[in-house]
Specification:
278 residues; mainly alpha; two-stranded antiparallel ribbon; 63% helix; binds iron/sulfur cluster
């Protein structure tokens, strides 16, 4: 492992996450609002409008298809929140010398399917005319209000309790919500179909018995094991820069400074289109 490269990518990611958290804290909920809008419009026999929410959603779909889940790894405020709460939790666990229980990887892989059920349930409720109830009980709505300095209303008590439970879950697992519950993540995980958005592992050079990349992966992925699950990858690059044999890279982008430049370009494109174009 090249320590300098590892630290450069680590801190670059934190900086990009902070910039997006400050400048675009609600991008994820705006994108998902388009799904709810579409379900409501179809159920009422209305037309699908090209609303700002729909534009954000369509752009993120296209971006994720081509570049993979960079948005999830670097730009989504809710995902970043998970990373930070987990970091604080790890720090406290080290200080007190006690470890929180963890979910075995195998179990986590099955639990990842829950998010598809959540997505289906939300779409059905919106179709059935309960979109207002969905918004009020959404932890995203409560989170968006809080980061805009507003308090949730009494009607949002369910959303506030769910948000609290999710925050607790993030202390146990950094991408607790993304892995198990996020309906947008359920959609995004089906999209990275092009090689440009996928992490590639050359397992020929692997050290015998080493499974560092799998142990460190926040999404419980073992690259090259099951192609269908690789859409779960959020492109954090932890596996790539932690690998002692430099065997993992993103698509055709060479691992190293080329990848760092590409990361900055991806972040700039996302920011420019989401903030200034749409
Ligand atoms: S899975 Fe959902 S919450 Fe997690 S980073 Fe992606 S959009 Fe955000
Ligand atoms: S960290 Fe590198 S060497 Fe170890 S298993 Fe993963 S790809 Fe192979
Ligand atoms: S550790 Fe590697 S495989 Fe896992 S999410 Fe990050 S980039 Fe993807």
């Amino acid at each position: 492992m090249d320590k300098k490269l590892f630290n450069t990518t680590k801190y670059l990611r934190i900086v990009i996450q902070i910039v997006f958290f400050i400048m675009m804290p609600s991008a994820f909920s705006s994108a998902f609002a388009a799904v709810k809008e579409a379900a409501v419009a179809i159920s009422q026999g209305g037309e699908l409008g090209f609303t700002p929410f729909a534009k954000i959603f369509l752009f993120l779909l296209a971006f994720t298809m081509i570049c993979g889940r960079f948005f999830c790894g670097y730009a989504c405020a809710f995902g970043s929140l998970g990373n930070w709460i987990y970091m604080i939790s790890q720090f406290i666990q080290k200080k007190v010398g006690k470890k929180l229980p963890s979910i075995p990887s195998r179990t986590a892989r099955y639990l990842q399917l829950i998010k598809y059920v959540v997505l289906l349930a939300i779409v059905i409720l919106c179709f059935a005319g309960f979109s207002g109830m969905v918004s009020e009980s959404s932890p995203w709505t409560v989170f968006s209000l809080l980061i805009n300095g507003k308090l949730p209303t009494e009607a949002m008590i369910v959303g506030a309790v769910i948000l609290l439970l999710i925050l607790v879950g993030m202390a146990f697992r950094q991408r607790f919500f993304c892995q198990f519950l996020c309906p947008l993540g359920a959609i995004f995980s089906l999209l990275p179909i092009l090689p440009t958005g996928r992490m590639v592992r050359k397992s020929e050079g692997c050290i015998k018995g080493c499974n560092l990349c799998e142990r460190k992966c926040p999404m419980d992925l073992k690259l090259g094991e099951n192609e269908w699950r690789e859409g779960e990858c959020i492109q954090c690059r932890i596996c790539s820069y932690g690998c002692p044999k430099s065997s993992i890279s993103l698509g055709m982008i060479p691992r190293g400074y080329g990848d760092i430049v590409w990361t900055v370009i991806e972040a700039a494109i996302l920011m420019a289109v989401l903030k200034f174009v749409i």
